[in-house]
Amino acid sequence: MRTIFYDAFSLRDAISIAEDTPPLNTALVFGDGRNEFRGVRVRTDDIGILPPLRYDLAEDDFGLSLPGIVYESAPTRLDILREELDKSIDKLTLKTLLTTANSPLFADAGKNILNVVYDDVPLDIYVNVANSTTGKDAYESYKPNKPQSFNMQLLLP
User: Do 117 and 127 touch, CB atoms closer than 8 A?
Assistant: First the structure.
């Protein structure tokens, strides 16, 4: 993913890099507002890219029109997510976060759900994803003693 963000100078570059080294078990939407006002959706499974690539996504297909990296499940669920977080923000715990992320409003049962667990060290973020071959969601296969760790500051220019 980092290679795509830093090395791709156009929509076609991003697609080419994603095809060469596809990030597994995810759906990516690339948009290029500089040269082309359209986007491409690339879905991958645990072995690589799943056809078809959608090359016909225009700016109108997205609920948000923002530069940079946007993490969002769907524009129609943004207000619902805001309500859920506002209700529990004072007592936000890992359990509350998992319950919200894995509720039917935001997740489909049996899908590969990404859970982000925040540590108490600033900018240290632990990420755990389910292995698609196990048939479990990430929260079911979460191993707190073996998370994948990365420092957000190292990703910034």
Answer: yes
What size, in residues, is the chain? 157
Query: Residue 43 forms beta bridges with which residues?
Result: 27, 50
What's the mean pLDDT in 21-50? 76
6 membership: H or E segment, kind and range: helix 2-7
E strands of 12-99, at which residues? 27-32, 38-44, 49-58
Calpha distance 151→73 (Å, rounded): 23
Please tell me whether the overall predicted TM-score, pTM, comes out greater than 0.85 for this model.
no
E strand or H helix at 124, and its extent? strand 124-129
Report the C-alpha dihedral over residues 76, 32, 157, 121, rounded to 10 degrees: 20
